[in-house]
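Hello K.,

You asked for the raw outputs rather than the summary table, so here they are, unedited. I folded two proteins back to back in the same session to keep the settings identical. This is the first:
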Amino acid sequence: MSPTATKQTHYTIGRLAHAADVNVETIRYYQRIGLIDEPEKPANGFRQYSERTLETIKFIKRAKQLGFSLQETAELLQLGNGHCDDVRQRAEEKQAQIDKQISDLKKLRKTLNKLIRSCQSGGDQANCPIVETLAGK
């Protein structure tokens, strides 16, 4: 964009998808679940989405990258600025959930490592420790 060009403030759904780096169907889905509004369709032409809609989609993408579900993201959007304590509380809850997932994954890795070592020890080839464990034996 040249320095004298103005920033586009209205987008068709295709241009909005491109600007937000999402699929058009993602935008339609966000509309269906109420994360973004669907603008009125003019009698002659295409719906026009605002710069605010683009920023909302970018917000949703960043929230997803931090592990927030779409429902949690909807709550964050509803809270908005001025509710830092509420937003921080939700972020702390998400952090605790992630810490629990990390702990669970470490336990899973430890169990898998143990099973893999059992297989590598060259024991009984007729009975695989991993298959037996998965079979509940």
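The second followed immediately with the same parameters:
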Amino acid sequence: METDKGNHVRKILQKLQEAYSARDLNQLDEVMNLFLQSDEIELIGIGAKERKGYEWFQGVKAIREIISADWEFWGDVQFDIEGAKISMNGKTAWLSTTGKLIQTKQHDKAMVEFAKMMQSMLNDVDEEGKNADLMIMEATHFGIRRLRERKLGEGYQWPFTLTAVLVKVEDDWKFHTIHWAMPVD
């Protein structure tokens, strides 16, 4: 059973929701105060598959950069705050919830960034060409998915899950780890 203290954690999730809704880069410092100020913090994105790889962000600077990019290029994020399951043990809390990402016009703006990412993938071909086939497939798959997303149009909704670990620092709860996940389609 969730205690009153669980409501404090829910309020932190609500603040993150409000920040993602506002997309105000002038408030990014305030949003970063929701995170533990440590190089240990992590935000694991929907495309992550290996530590220190694509969409696996560690440290305050990296998380700040991805949140800023989310606000600039990603759609509208809506967490199920009331439906979040929150568990606690001492100075540690963890939560799981669902949500949806709603495609907006930001996706059009992101297409240039996606093309740059594809180019970067192709630049990873080694000198001997041993991984050329794999890199061409990865870049093509990535590009086709982005084109498919764009074709689905503004307003299209993707479901996601979010899990997080928070730690209590003095009287405040801070995010330590956040993991976004989307079902494979």
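DSSP finds five helices and seven strands in the chain.

Happy to rerun anything if the numbers look odd on your end.

Regards,
P.
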